[in-house]
Amino acid sequence: MSAAAVERPSGDRPLIAEANRIMERFPGYRVEIIGGQILVSPPPDGAHARALTDLMVPFLTAGLHGPESQVLQGIGLWLPAGVEDYAIPDLVVVDADFEEHFVENNCYDPVCFRLVLEVTSSNYRTDLRTKVAAYAEAKVPVYVIVDRKHQRLHVLTDPAGDKYENHRPHAPGEMVALPDSLGAKVTLDVAEILEAGHPRRP
């Protein structure tokens, strides 16, 4: 069960209004506001989608999509650092009552997020730098990054300020056990995940 949502200032939302206009003009693009800046990401490639689908399997097999928690793609996480800031992680594990923590603009209070996960695309620096600070400031307990460019899987835990106290990169050949704080035992095969995210063009 999640704690109560934090209060936030109300009023005009010029950045959100502009972000929503961009989404209407460019369907399929991901639009986020981090650090008071609008970030626009093109639609992911097929390998990104395949990696994301394969990644869901160990979470589902562990029973994390049920009465206590949910495994979801593409829902908004309201960021406390700015009055209009929000991110849309590729994959999340949230408390089952996450809808009770709705903030606005299809975003939810970070208090109900147990894990956020990103699979990198052409804008990999955002996932490896900008979002590290954003998710740490939001106190998301676990941040996992599938770094397709550098062929690593990063697991970040113990948020403190704008960083994570523990940041461990993992290489192919490793089996990575995620923290028990998720509510179940989840182990990720780094080689399998990175292979799924590798484009298979002729």
Task: Provide an overview of this structure.
The chain is an alpha+beta fold and 202 residues long. The protein contains 4 helices and 14 strands. The chain has helices at residues 14-25, 46-61, 124-137, 190-196; strands at 30-34, 37-41, 69-73, 76-78, 86-87, 91-95, 102-104, 107-108, 113-119, 142-147, 152-160, 163-170, 175-177, 187-189. The chain has a 6-stranded mixed sheet. It has a 4-stranded mixed sheet with strand order 5-4-8-7, with no helix packed on it. Strands 1-2 form a two-stranded antiparallel ribbon. The longest helix is centred in the N-terminal third of the chain and has 16 residues, at 46-61.
H/E topology pattern: HEEHEEEEEEEHEEEEEH
What is the CA-atom radius of gyration, in angstroms? 16 Å
Helix segment count? 4
Structural class: alpha+beta
Helix content, binned percent:
10-25%
| Percentage of residues in strands | 25-35%
Sheet with the most strands, sense and barrel status: 6 strands, mixed
- The coarse overall form would be globular
Question: Which secondary structure elements does this structure contain, and how are they paired or packed?
Answer:
Blueprint: H1 14-25, E1 30-34, E2 37-41, H2 46-61, E3 69-73, E4 76-78, E5 86-87, E6 91-95, E7 102-104, E8 107-108, E9 113-119, H3 124-137, E10 142-147, E11 152-160, E12 163-170, E13 175-177, E14 187-189, H4 190-196
Parallel strand pairs: 4-8, 9-10
Antiparallel strand pairs: 1-2, 3-6, 4-5, 6-9, 7-8, 10-11, 11-12, 13-14
Helix pairs in contact: 2-4
Q: What attributes does this structure have?
A:
202 residues, 6-stranded mixed beta sheet, 4-stranded mixed beta sheet, 4 helices, 14 strands
